[in-house]
Amino acid sequence: MKIKKNLIKRNIAGDVILVPVGSASLDIKGLISLNETAEVIWDALPEAEDKADLVKAVTDVYDVDAAIAEGDVGAFLEKLRELDII
Question: N or C: lower Cβ tally within 10 Å for the chain?
């Protein structure tokens, strides 16, 4: 999947955040905090062709039912689309 905005992932004091840089900082005010699942999804985004690839990335890392992973992935993707990140 294509990431439209320039965001850098950083680990600060144990928290994983996305920091907008360049023109993305004009569109996205503040930082985006990621939980562990969101971090797995974010890391898999550039290589993923579709939602199913992201669900597989989550189920590969966590012992979770695919339906639950699909819900988590869908919610995260929806938020990224709202922010016009993907």
Answer: C
Q: Tokens 């996305």 belong to which residue?
A: 18
Number of C-beta neighbours around residue 34 at 10 A: 19
- DSSP state letters, 8-43: EEEEETTEEEEEE-TTHHHHS-S-EEE-HHHHHHHH
pLDDT band at 11 (very low <50, low <70, confident <90, very high): very high
84: left (phi over 0), alpha (psi -120 to 50) or beta: left
Position 5 confidence tier, pLDDT thresholds 50, 70, 90: confident
- Distance, in Å, from the CA atom of 3 to the CA atom of 55, rounded to the nearest integer, reads 17
Q: Residue 67 contacts by C-beta under 8 Å, 6 or more apart in sequence?
A: none
Helix, strand, coil tally for the chain in percent (to 5)? 50, 15, 30
Q: How many residues would you count in the chain?
A: 86
